[in-house]
């Protein structure tokens, strides 16, 4: 029995470790907190978000992103173009032709890559097998080669524009760890004071927030549980008779 339990625990630990590794491989590094969003092209599920890494080379940005999250595939070091693939997100790092000291980081969905990029161009940087799996028997006939050359090699789908506030909210990837907040019902103010979870009065945003505990009628606290009624066991009294054997 003990051996079976030990084997079961070992199997659970192995499966948990494998799941965490697979989850890490599928996730992507964060860009929103480090680089400003410069341009957006979105048409349905086909999306392309462009960030600017000021004063950083393509290789430097690639090393920084790869150190955050290991990509499923990364192209060889190149001063002009590099690709990092994270699940269904393709990171195209490119030297800005108009400002060579900067790197443009373009995050494209699979749909966008399939609809706009040229497969021959991608095969220059990535494995042919990956390109074949993406395009299959169709696609890969576009002329697009990245945001830096969008005026020369225009995308088939949509047009780029400056990001709106809504674009900034939904721009991928969202991997930043944030602290949760509780919100009182009927109030737009967030609750950060643990003592105010049950409700109560609150001050202005610059002041502190104190919670209170409501009481039932009669002055008893809501945490005062009713005392159970304890009754004595019922007993019966009677008389008995003792008889002798043999009579």
Automatic annotation (TrEMBL):
Q: Where is this region: Disordered?
A: 146-247
Composition bias (Low complexity) maps to 195-212
Superkingdom is: Bacteria
Q: Which residues form the signal peptide?
A: 1-23
For bias kind Polar residues, which ranges apply? 184-193
Q: Where is the composition biased (Basic and acidic residues)?
A: 162-180
Keywords of the record: Signal
What's the protein name?
DUF4247 domain-containing protein
Its taxonomic placement starts with: Bacteria, Bacillati, Bacillota, Bacilli, Bacillales
